[in-house]
Every structure is written in structure tokens, then in C-alpha cells.
Amino acid sequence: MGQKILIIEDEKALAEEWAKGLQYAGYETKIVTTLNEVMNILNQLDFDLVLLDIMLPSYDVSDRIKQNSIKWGRIAGLWIAKQIKEREPSMPIFVVSLVTDQKILDELKQVGVVKVVSKPISVKELIDIVESCLGKV
Question: How distant, in Å, are the alpha carbons of 47, 48, 49, 135 from that of 3?
Fold first, then answer.
């Protein structure tokens, strides 16, 4: 079995495209598209890498999560990155997003995100970066 990649991306078609490419490259993948799904999986982080979008809709999260995320508005992915790193400090997180706000990008680095890339990204580029993050290159 290949290494396991968790894909957190609200654009389901895009997540499926990434998953298909990663599976073809020998990885196992799991797609999560909502914050409720993220909340359900946070305590079961049995993955080798997390591929994360920063802009996730927050309409389906509890009030507690909304309060913690409010200073980022819809930047729920930053909160998710922090939660993952609190639970699994060595978990590599690779962010693919349209976010260009330098303050957010700096905070992602402080949290411990290993790579931030702007969308759009080709599946080949995605696989190359995943392999780099996992030390395969």
C-alpha cells in the first residue's frame, strides 16, 4: 500500500482530479470537502501528508469553531492547519490555495506548513511537490 494523503478541498471536482492523479502515482487518498468532515477526522489523523485548501466555507461548523475561526473569516483552513499541528506536530501540510494575503501566508509558515502553492496547479506539479514534501525527491 502507498502512503496516505488527506485532501481537504471544498471544490469536489478538483479534489477528485488530484486524488485520481495521486492514486495513479501510487498514493492512497481520502477526500474531505466540509469542515464537519474535517472535525470528524481530526482525531484520526492516520495520514502521511495533508493537502489543504485555505478557503473553506464555514456554514457547517459549530459555534465553537466559528468563534475560533472568526478572525480569519472564511480562512478556515488556517484554523485546520493549527489543529492538525497541535495533534500531529510532524504531519507535513501542503497548502494549495488562491490566498495571496501575506499575513496569512506568514501565519501558515509559523504554524509549520511545509509548502504553499497558488492555484491553479497541474496534477504533475502537485505530485512533484507531494513527493518533495515526503522526501521522495
Answer: 7, 6, 8, 12
